[in-house]
Each structure stands twice: as C-alpha cells, then as structure tokens.
Amino acid sequence: MTTNRVRHIVVLGAGVIGLTTALSIQERGGYTVSIVAEALPTDPKSIKYTSHWAGAHHVSHAKGEPRQTKIDQDTFRVFWELSAPGGRAEHCFMRLHQSEFSTKVVEGENSLSWYPDFKVVEQNRLIPGAAYGVEFSTVTIDTPAYTNYLLSRFLAAGGSVIRGSVQHINQVVEGGARIFSDPKRPSPVDAMVVCTGIGALTLGGIEDKTVYPIRGQTVLIRAPWVKFGRTINSHNTWTYIIPRPSGDVIVGGTRVENDWYPIARSETTEDILKRAITLCPELAPPEIRAKCTPTIDDVRPIIIEEGCGHRPARKDGIRLEVVWFQGKDKKVPVVTNYGHGASGFQSSWGSAAIAVELLEDSLIKSKL
Ligand SMILES: Cc1cc2nc3c(=O)[nH]c(=O)nc-3n(C[C@H](O)[C@H](O)[C@H](O)COP(=O)(O)OP(=O)(O)OC[C@H]3O[C@@H](n4cnc5c(N)ncnc54)[C@H](O)[C@@H]3O)c2cc1C
Predict the structure, then answer these.
(1) What b/e readout covers 193-224, taking b as 16+ CB neighbours within 10 angstroms?
(2) How far is CA 17 from CA 20, 197, 198, 313, 331, in A?
(3) Are the C-beta atoms of 50 and 309 separated by less than 8 Å?
(4) Ligand 1 in contact with 338 (CB < 6 A)?
(5) Which residues carry a binding-site annotation?
(6) 365: pLDDT confidence band, cut at 50, 70 and 90?
(7) Torsion angle, alpha carbons of 140, 142, 147, 153, to 10
(8) Are the CB atoms for 338 and 12 separated by under 8 Å?
(9) Ligand 1 test: best mutation among 51, 92, 218, 238, most atoms within 8 Å of CB?
(10) Cα distance between residue 165 and residue 297, in whole Å
(11) Could you tell me which residues are beta bridge partners of residue 138?
(12) Torsion, CA 353, CA 142, CA 258, CA 200, rounded to 10
C-alpha cells in the first residue's frame, strides 16, 4: 500500500458473494466498507435474492478446471473451520456423509477425490438406477441462517449496510454509498466491488449480456431424521437431498436455462417429490417406513414451502476483473465478482480472496 489513509470501499450486493467479499476486505484492515444492496438477508425470500433459495451443499462442479477447483477448495477449508464443533458458525452448517450417484460411469480420476473420506461406491452398494457413485464428507449450509450470520459479523466489525437500487455504477463512483441514505451528503469512494449476481445483466455500466439465469426449483420439508446428503445425476435430471442443521431438508431440483418464471410451478413440485422419494425413501417419517413402502403422499404433510431461485450463471464462469470508471476527480477501480451460477456458496471465500487481491493491486496502481 502507498498510504496509511483508510480507504472507502463500496460493495454492491448483499447476497453470499457481496457479504463474503465485504468481510474479506474488512478483515484485511485499512478499509471502511459499505454494502449497498436492493435486497438484504433479513428480507423475506424473493426472486431478486438467489442466496436464500440455495440448498446448499459443498459439492464442487469444477470438474478439474484449475481456477475453479482452487476457489472451491479454499472455500471448503473456511467452511470446515466455521462448521467445527464450537466453531464460529457451527449452527449454520451440518457436516455429513455425502453420496453422489450418476447414471453414467465416470472414467479416470474423479474430480471430487480431494474431499475428506472420498471413496468410490462398490457396485453392490449402488442405489437402483445408478451406474457409478462416490461418497465423501462435506458440509451443507442453512443459507438464510448463514447469510444472516455473515451480515451480523460484518456489522459487528463496523461495516455499514445501505439499502439502495443502483441504476448505474457511476451513481456510486461519484456519490458513494451514502447518497442512497442521505442524498445531501455524498461520500467519497476509493474503489467498488460489484457482486450483483443476476443483476449484472442489467446494471448500468456493467450490462453483461453473457449473464443468464438457470432456474432452480426446490421443496423444503421437515425431516430431522435425515442426516446424510444424496444426489443422483442423469442426463436430463438432477435430484438431491440436502439436510440442514435445523432439521429442515431441501429437496430438488431443476436447472432450466433462461427460465425467468419467478414462483414454484406445482407440476414441477410433483415431479421433484416423485424423484426424491425414489432416491431417498428415508424422507418419509420412520413410523410410516416401518409399516409400508413410502410414497409422495407420505411426504406432503411435512412440506414447509416450495420455491425457486435464479442461479446467476455466466458464459465464461465467474467474472473476476477490474474495470476503471471516471469519478468526479479521479478514476475509480471497480472489481467484478459475479456469475457464480450453481456454486455461489461453495466458491464464496475463494472468489472473494481473488477479488481482494485485484482490489489491492488496483489501489496500488491508482496510488490511492
Ligand atoms: C435451487 C438452488 C440451489 C442451489 N444450490 C447451491 C448449492 O448447493 N451450493 C452452492 O454453492 N450454490 C447453490 N446455488 C447457487 C447460489 O445460490 C448462487 O450462486 C448464489 O446465491 C449467488 O449469490 P450472489 O450473491 O451472486 O447473488 P444474490 O444472492 O442474488 O445477491 C445479489 C445481490 O445483489 C443485489 N443487487 C443486484 N442488482 C442490484 C442493483 N442494481 N442495485 C442494488 N443491488 C443490487 C441484490 O439485491 C442482492 O443483494 C443454488 C441456487 C439455487 C437457485
């Protein structure tokens, strides 16, 4: 750094990416960090805030791609620490045994082999319909609880959060965070980080046309007896069971590109439940399973909600770059950290670390 002056950084977006990035900057020291966002973790669930809808589990989709693998591994290390018994955020995580089945055999080394306790499932233990399976230890995340944990950690360390709907990057570059709460007193900004998820498609100054939604629909059920994670991937469906520490279980799912429909479709819920009870009969209450083979009618009484979210996908994956914008009297670096698709939680800390490096390099370049 070239100066000891405290720098003012604005993070745009308060989803898992904005919150993790804001915390990562704040915890470096030497910055005051403000978040500006239209939707916050404390709001009711809405289609404008994907992070509330995620399962979520840490099961990397990196498929061996080096940058994404490192991002996911770095995040896993942080989650493992946070989820430790007595750890800082133990209540947000469940450490568990995960099985990933597939209708196709995976040749060569499996890209998930770095997870603890990794094993290929023996043929005689494969579930019906599976041709291949692996098992390992990982974590699931109670996403509403975890985003609120991140928010409270950020606020407790002196961060500020301002609700605002930003039309163009220049509004913040010139006016800072405070113009959204106190328009008479614009505040200075030394740099910005854009973590707007699907909002990057329309945000003025970014308008990234390679960003698109992958709609995912899920059903939340109450089944505290389920303590393991299980997924089956086939060529056109993806069915998963993700238990949370609260005893709720996320059952999914769907992935439909460019489907903007904002609420659950009842026929999709039926399809998800049918696939889920086949994959995991243990979803039904134990007393029913003791008497007969369960059906989806045994799961209906324990449904809490159905819903959907728009995974913020991007053609080339996460955009981690610096773009310069002209402010009132200087150029301001704007770091981008969006486009996490189906992996926002499991890549949150790793991508935030790269965003912080980009931010600090650009501040050195601009001699701020
Ligand atoms: C059904 C489903 C299951 C999933 N399962 C998993 C999983 O198991 N593991 C995993 O890692 N990921 C999972 N995901 C993906 C994960 O949810 C996303 O990748 C992640 O939530 C993206 O976070 P984000 O912060 O980029 O976006 P969001 O959470 O959408 O946050 C965006 C923020 O930007 C703000 N914003 C946007 N535009 C503007 C603007 N113009 N002005 C002001 N504020 C703005 C919004 O208000 C919000 O605060 C799942 C997603 C779905 C839908």
Answers:
(1) bbbbbbbbbebebbebeebbbbbbbbbbbebe
(2) 5, 8, 12, 13, 25
(3) yes
(4) yes
(5) 50-51, 166, 196, 240, 311
(6) confident
(7) -80
(8) no
(9) 51
(10) 43
(11) 96
(12) -40
Residues 310-363 pLDDT 10s: 999 999 999 999 999 998 788 999 999 999 999 999 999 999 999 999 999 999
Nearest CA to ligand 1 atom 1: 216
Q: Is the pLDDT of residue 1 over 60?
A: no
Distance CA 166, CA 147 (A): 21
Residue 14 reports pLDDT greater than 90: yes
In 3D, which of 364, 212, 226, 208 has the Cα closest to residue 289?
226
Average pLDDT of the residues in 257-285:
97
> Among positive and negative, which fits the CA dihedral 348, 262, 252, 87?
positive
Residue with tokens 């239209």: 38
For residue 253, say if its preceding peptide bond is cis, omega within 30 degrees of 0: yes
**Residue 327: its pLDDT value, please?**
83
HEC letters along 192-239:
EEECCHHHHHCCECCCCCCEEEEEEEEEEEECCCCCCEEEEECCCCEE
Q: Where are the domains of the chain?
A: 7-365
CB 75 within 8 A of CB 346: yes
Cα separation, 83 vs 197, whole angstroms: 25
- Looking at ligand 1, which residue's alpha carbon is closest to its atom 50? 54
Using left for φ > 0, alpha for ψ between -120 and 50, and beta otherwise, residue 2 falls in: alpha
41/13 Cα distance (integer angstroms): 11
Taking the alpha carbons at both ends of the chain, their separation in whole angstroms is 8
Superfamily of domain 7-365: NAD(P)-binding Rossmann-like Domain (3.40.50.720)
Determine the residue type at 339.
Answer: G
